[in-house]
């Protein structure tokens, strides 16, 4: 096999191989740590015949081929590598063009003339050509460059040059742009090195000026951003080869459907897209499943097809009816409607019959090795002692397994694959094991259960799935998937993997989530600190904002990517800002007595929405204003400062929707430090214009406390961005991830709020009514703060 000697020689030999092609040491070491990329790059180096080394530029292109080459065109990879090593393709732009061309071509015959034209092969761009193009671009943008000087966006200049000269050497382009900048602007000045001053927000544009702004509006999103499902082929194209499986002892298997098999499939489906969302019912779904739903249900909906909700229930010990009910309910909450709800256990009889057929064809055998022995033999690439037992013997033993005549752990059915393969997932995977455990869905009919590796692909085929979509950790299982369908001569769906969704400051592994719940580190599967969909819902996150977040990050194949939590929060705020009415709540009340006001209570208008029209009564709510009001303890200081806009002795602030007040006296506690009460005077004429604006809550009648509510402030569950990488990951739990405030004060308008109602508590954040609420006391969960850190960072 290609690459075999390099990988078997150990990490040092592989590292040396990568250094020979010009990778820097850090990149090489990171690559060795990634088994998938290591296998791909090793294979590419051998295919390119550069095991003795090559130029660094060539090596970088080879690395790109190893990480980005389209899997549906593997048959053409050797051809592309010849173009790279012969320097006919020598810059990244040419390579990207080649990927695009080959993705469209797939396994069809490669039309060399069209390929070379698409990749700029043979096109030589001289330095004079580049200078001419750069001069033209500088002339077109001269005014902007002179205005922005060395703050000019060089990337935009690059983009303009690339449009004119797509095959220009980027190093030469950079050199000429730098030269032209210096010639036009001269030496950098001290002002060029200063940070730009933030401009104040401009006043709203007048109506007659709006037409001009349309011309400078942001560019429209690309077609792929609008419809991320364009990357997938139509069902009638599933006769093309898009996966090749290499064996140690037989010809390459090029996975594809014969015309007869595909025609039969298309007749059943009517040519429509059929996908499946196949969760295992052994826990609650998390936000990673939201991406899987978006891909599976979204593709089917976009193409006018249907998506099965299929419960992958092959492990009766871990599955519960509770989880099945939850999954079905949460799929609906996420906005998806299954074409049909099925269970892998619905197909147990067909799966058993196909296993018997697999034995008859000499492609499976009954094995008696223990789990430890199987692990050891697989690591050493050694055949099981029972691998070559007679077919009739395996048939008899498998029947005994089905009848319950063999003890649990005494036998398994294993697929007879390729023990010398470079792919660990071809080392005779287990197809069936004995488990004397009743099944939640199938009852006690079976005592043998199929494995995921055996059942998954067969049920995909039986359900006529057109697109079998899963996350990248299953990519190495693709060989086994197609091996089995080919061995049984079954219809083969189109398989494609995408990057799993990983978010900072949390864990997504079901095993870790289960431990957090069962060991009571959190308050159940729907704890608002968890990234379970039930937890997010209880926290006040909507399904539409989750789907917007998933669409925003795209359907990519970038492995091991970690998405920052504040990107999710950005999408949550975007929606709640439009849908959550405003209200005022004081978390830590400090009493303010207004000494120049009588005991009467005023009813003032407060806005539910920032842009509420003055003539729309439904956009306002009434808030009482009386002699006693409460502000946040943090909004008062004994010592004032220039950059402080809260209340202080002798200082005025504006109470939002009410009047300015001025602190005239401070009542301290017995320790002579704790502020017990503030005395103030209000300005009924509103002539004073203080800078600070505070939220507040008032007594609704003299001597009656405001509405008391409980508020739960949730924060990141873990301190580290990637706690899953830590050995003692539980030690990284954030002790302040949940803070409960039992005696907050709220305005009366929220009194009748129902569970699930969301509000923006002014200056505090977005909050939702929790199911723990009772008629005696409302409980609010903080969904997200007001601070938009993601937007400020500019992505």
From TrEMBL:
CDD domains: GlnRS_core. Pfam families: tRNA-synt_1c, tRNA-synt_1c_C, tRNA-synt_1c_C2, tRNA_synt_1c_R1, tRNA_synt_1c_R2. The keyword Aminoacyl-tRNA synthetase applies. Residues 272-577 form the Glutamyl/glutaminyl-tRNA synthetase class Ib catalytic domain. One of its GO terms (biological process) is post-embryonic development. Residues 693-770 form the tRNA synthetases class I (E and Q) anti-codon binding domain. It catalyses: tRNA(Gln) + L-glutamine + ATP = L-glutaminyl-tRNA(Gln) + AMP + diphosphate. Its EC number is 6.1.1.18. Residues 580-683 form the Glutamyl/glutaminyl-tRNA synthetase class Ib anti-codon binding domain. Residues 13-170, 173-246 form the Glutaminyl-tRNA synthetase class Ib non-specific RNA-binding domain. The keyword ATP-binding applies. GO terms for molecular function: ATP binding; glutamine-tRNA ligase activity. Keywords: Aminoacyl-tRNA synthetase, ATP-binding, Ligase, Nucleotide-binding, Protein biosynthesis. Belongs to the class-I aminoacyl-tRNA synthetase family. NCBIfam families: glnS (TIGR00440). This is glutamine--tRNA ligase. The lineage of its organism: Eukaryota, Viridiplantae, Streptophyta, Embryophyta, Tracheophyta.
């Amino acid at each position: 096999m290609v690459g075999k000697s390099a990988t078997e020689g150990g990490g040092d030999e592989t590292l040396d191989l990568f250094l020979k092609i010009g990778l820097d040491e850090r990149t090489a070491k990171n690559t060795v740590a990634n088994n998938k990329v290591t296998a791909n790059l090793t294979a590419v180096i051998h295919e390119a015949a550069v095991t003795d080394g090559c130029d660094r530029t060539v090596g970088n292109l080879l690395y790109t081929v190893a990480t980005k080459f389209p899997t549906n065109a593997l048959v053409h990879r050797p051809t592309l590598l010849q173009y790279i090593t012969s320097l006919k393709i020598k810059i990244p732009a040419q390579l990207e063009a080649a990927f695009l061309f080959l993705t469209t071509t797939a396994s069809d015959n490669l039309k060399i003339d069209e390929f070379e034209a698409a990749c700029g092969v043979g096109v030589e761009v001289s330095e004079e050509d580049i200078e001419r193009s750069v001069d033209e671009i500088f002339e077109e943008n001269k005014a902007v460059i002179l205005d922005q000087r060395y703050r000019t966006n060089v990337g935009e200049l690059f983009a303009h040059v690339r449009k004119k000269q797509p095959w220009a050497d980027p190093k030469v382009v950079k050199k000429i742009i730098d030269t032209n900048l210096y010639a036009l602007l001269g030496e950098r000045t001290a002002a060029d090195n200063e940070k730009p001053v933030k401009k104040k927000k401009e006043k709203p544009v007048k109506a007659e000026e709006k037409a001009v702004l349309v011309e400078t509006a942001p560019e429209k999103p690309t077609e792929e951003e609008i419809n991320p499902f364009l990357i997938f082929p139509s069902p009638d194209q599933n006769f093309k080869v898009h996966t090749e499986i290499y064996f140690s002892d037989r010809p390459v298997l090029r996975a594809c459907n014969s015309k007869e098999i595909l025609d039969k499939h298309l007749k059943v489906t009517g040519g429509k897209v059929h996908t499946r969302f196949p969760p295992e019912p052994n826990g609650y779904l998390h936000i990673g499943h939201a991406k899987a739903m978006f891909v599976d249900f979204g593709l089917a909906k976009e193409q006018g097809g249907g998506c099965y909700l299929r419960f992958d229930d092959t492990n009766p010990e871990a599955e519960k009816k509770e989880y099945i009910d939850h999954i079905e309910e949460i799929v609906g909450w996420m906005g998806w409607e299954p074409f049909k709800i099925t269970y892998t256990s619905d197909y147990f009889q067909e799966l058993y019959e196909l296993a018997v057929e697999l034995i008859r064809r000499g492609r499976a055998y009954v094995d008696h090795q223990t789990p430890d022995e199987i692990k050891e033999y697989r690591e050493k690439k050694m055949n099981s002692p029972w691998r070559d037992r007679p077919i009739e013997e395996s048939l008899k033993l498998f029947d005994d397994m089905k009848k319950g005549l063999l003890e649990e752990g005494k036998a398994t059915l294993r697929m007879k694959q390729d023990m010398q393969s470079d792919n660990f997932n071809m080392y005779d995977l287990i197809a069936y094991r004995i488990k004397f455990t009743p099944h939640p869905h199938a009852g006690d009919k079976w005592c043998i259960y199929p494995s995921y590796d055996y059942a998954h692909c067969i049920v995909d085929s039986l359900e006529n799935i057109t697109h079998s979509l899963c996350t990248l950790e299953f990519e190495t299982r693709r060989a086994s998937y197609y091996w089995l369908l080919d061995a049984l001569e079954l219809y083969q769906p189109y398989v494609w993997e995408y990057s799993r969704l990983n978010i900072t400051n949390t864990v997504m592994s079901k095993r870790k989530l289960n431990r957090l719940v069962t060991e009571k580190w959190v308050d159940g599967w729907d704890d608002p600190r968890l990234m379970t969909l039930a937890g997010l819902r209880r926290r006040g996150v909507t399904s539409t904002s989750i789907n917007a977040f998933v669409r925003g990050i795209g359907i990519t194949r970038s492995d091991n990517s970690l998405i920052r939590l504040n990107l999710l929060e950005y999408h949550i705020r975007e929606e709640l800002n439009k849908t959550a009415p405003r209200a005022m709540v004081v978390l830590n009340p400090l009493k303010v007595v207004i000494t120049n006001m009588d005991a009467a209570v005023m009813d003032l208008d407060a806005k539910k929405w920032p842009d509420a029209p003055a003539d729309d009564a439904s956009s306002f709510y009434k808030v009482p204003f009386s002699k006693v009001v409460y502000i946040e303890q943090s909004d008062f200081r004994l010592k004032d400062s220039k950059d402080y806009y809260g209340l202080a002795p002798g200082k005025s602030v504006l109470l939002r929707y009410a009047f300015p007040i001025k602190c005239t006296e401070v009542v301290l506690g017995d320790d002579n430090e704790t502020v017990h009460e503030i005395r103030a005077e209000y300005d009924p004429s509103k002539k004073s214009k203080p800078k600070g604006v505070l939220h507040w809550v008032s007594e609704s009648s003299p001597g009656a406390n405001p509405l008391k509510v409980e508020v739960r402030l949730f924060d990141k569950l873990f301190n580290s961005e990637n706690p899953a990488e830590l050995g003692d990951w539980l030690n990284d739990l954030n002790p302040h991830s949940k803070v409960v405030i039992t005696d907050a004060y709220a305005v009366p308008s929220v009194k009748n709020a129902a569970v699930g109602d969301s509000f923006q508590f002014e200056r505090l954040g977005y909050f939702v009514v929790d199911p723990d609420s009772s008629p005696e006391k409302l409980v609010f969960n903080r969904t997200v703060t007001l601070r938009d850190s993601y937007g400020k960072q500019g992505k």
